[in-house]
Design brief:
The protein is α/β, with parallel strands linked by helices. The protein has helices at about 5-15, 20-35, 35-45, 50-65, 80-95, 110-120; strands at about 105, 130, 150-155, 165-170, 180. It has a 5-stranded mixed sheet. Helix 1 (about 5-15) packs across helix 2 and helix 2 runs antiparallel to helix 3.
Amino acid sequence: MLYGGSRGSAKVYGALFGTDYYLAWAWVSLRTSTGNEISLTLSSKRHRRTAPDTYLAAVVVSDYALSANVKSFRYNAYDIISRDLYQAIEKDALSRGLVRARVGGTWWYEPEINFYRLRYKAQWMLPYEIKDRSYWWQTPGALEPAAYDYFVFVPPSDPQLTGPRVRMIFHDEKTQATIIAITHD
């Protein structure tokens, strides 16, 4: 049985039913969600495509396109906690009037913070640097934790920073992710 979407199955499907590769790939991609009957009927070389067939295909594709939750596409790559981390840093940096904020910390949140930095065109935030004593790799030239404006960590990478210049601006109980803001004179 062929399952939708792969190029190999599109080639096999196209060879079996005598359709060109791109049409076969489109129908193989939709096959698992639209049913075998539609894809077999519309792709068969014995069947001439008519206006009702084209209309049916358009209705099926439109139905799937309209039911997609487009608003969530941009956030599907990362979870809500990562977005909350970014927004906590953004809110605090704006309240402090920071024009340039250095953010470092655990390797776990580096791609997510940089994703949102680029997504929201945050010119005020420098690229996130990995400075994690529990991880084997550090960003070359990474600062010590106390030199950052914001440091993101989980318990194994806790920098143990305390004092009047350090305050916690975010903590998630479930993931144990914490952000500390460090003020510099």
